[in-house]
Amino acid sequence: MNPGKLVRLIQASRMSRDCGLDDLGKIMTISRRNNKNLGVTGSLCYLRLRGLIYECKI
To answer: Which of 13, 14, 49, 55 is packed most tightly, with the most Cβ within 10 A?
Structure first.
């Protein structure tokens, strides 16, 4: 990736019924490690009532 170029990714997804909050925590732990190694920053928003996940990476 060109360090001078700003790239954005916005994604919306829905958790499967088999995926619980413990699974979401594991996903976040692995993602933080991988993103740090790649120099990726961003945020994740989980809307519990609808099971929606919004993710924005820069």
So the answer is: 55
3-class DSSP state of 49 = coil
- Mean pLDDT, each 10-residue run in order, the chain (58 residues): 69 84 88 88 77 69
Tokens found for residue 4: 């001078």
CA 46 – CA 15 distance, rounded (Å) = 9
Helix (H) or strand (E) holding 32: helix 21-38
Contact of 6 with 23, CB cutoff 8 Å: no
